[in-house]
Amino acid sequence: MKPPLVISIQSQVVFGHVGNSAAVFPMQAAGLEVAAIPTVLFSNQPAYPTLRGAPLPPALFADLLLGAEERGLPQRAVWLVTGYIGSVQVGQLVADFVARAKAANPTLRYLCDPVMGDHGPGLYVPAELARIMRDRLLPLADLATPNSFELGHLTGRSIASMADLHAAAADLSLAPDAALIATGCVLDDSPADHLESVILAPGGATRHPTPRLPVALPGTGDLFAGLIVAGLGRGRSLPQAVETAQDLTSAALAHADRIGATEVVLSDPGFRAALLTL
């Protein structure tokens, strides 16, 4: 049997691990087939002193999407993932493609990671692109993984309690059967020195605390979303996939901290071995 296919539409870098350069390897190592479509091609993530490359021109990006459709990838795929987009025009093309893909394959599940900002840097995409995520992409999602800043920005709410999370989830235009994973949450009753991923699904809410590491690195959210899809693609339940993604993301961050890396590192032998058991 062919392995499950994932279409992953995210950024790509020459050096380092953000976007597809963070998410594709874990999914492949877990036994999934990945069709990676770049939204931007950069030399590295933007925190370095120089940044080369550019967002894909809309005509080129549209041509890549057409090629994916000509190969029948939407009909074959089990999951479609979107992350960092990079330009308003590409955002519109992504939304059109997701709608067409879901129409062509009603069993296709779509994970929308609305990569647009975080505590500290704030919003780092154009406001119009954030509106595309809110108004066009999230309503198509079966699973959404905003961090607490992104969820707050999308809904105009501060996220400090479970009540805030429930209210914010209700404010999003998600489908009735969609699930929301709010990541990186520090709530008023969170365990000390922990971050939480909170799943809000039709069947109820579950909370998943994990120790807060003294390190914050680019690519963390992209890796986390890729690991969730890897777990789901291998048949784990959503809570199991989230727990496993947290454990493996923490392991990758801890390894990066030990070796003094300034972004996510995927080369730790224990991390790679764990992927093979998903």
Description:
- With 278 residues, the chain is of the alpha/beta class.
- The protein has 10 helices and 11 strands.
- It has helices at residues 20-29, 58-70, 73-76, 88-104, 127-137, 148-155, 162-171, 220-233, 238-258, 269-275, and strands at residues 5-13, 33-42, 53-55, 79-82, 109-112, 117-118, 122-123, 143-144, 179-185, 194-201, 204-211.
- The strands form 2 sheets. The protein has a 9-stranded mixed sheet, sandwiched between helices. Strands 6-7 form a two-stranded antiparallel ribbon.
- The longest helix has 21 residues, at 238-258.
- The relative contact order is 0.14.
- The model has no long low-confidence stretch (mean pLDDT 95).
Summarize the structure.
With 278 residues, this protein is of the alpha/beta class. Helix content is 41%, strand content 21%. Helix 8 (220-233) packs across helix 9 (238-258).
Query: Would you list the SSEs in sequence order as H and E?
Result: EHEEHHEHEEEHEHHEEEHHH
Number of strands: 11
Oligomer: single chain
Give the strand content: 15-25%
- As residue ranges, the low-confidence spans are none
Biggest sheet descriptor: 9 strands, mixed
Distance between the termini: 18 Å
Q: How helix-rich are the residues, as a percent range?
A: 40-55%
- Number of helical stretches of at least 4 residues: 10
Shape: globular
> Structural class of the helices, strands and pairings?
alpha/beta
Mean pLDDT across all amino acids: 95
Widest beta sheet: strand line-up? 3-2-1-4-5-8-9-10-11
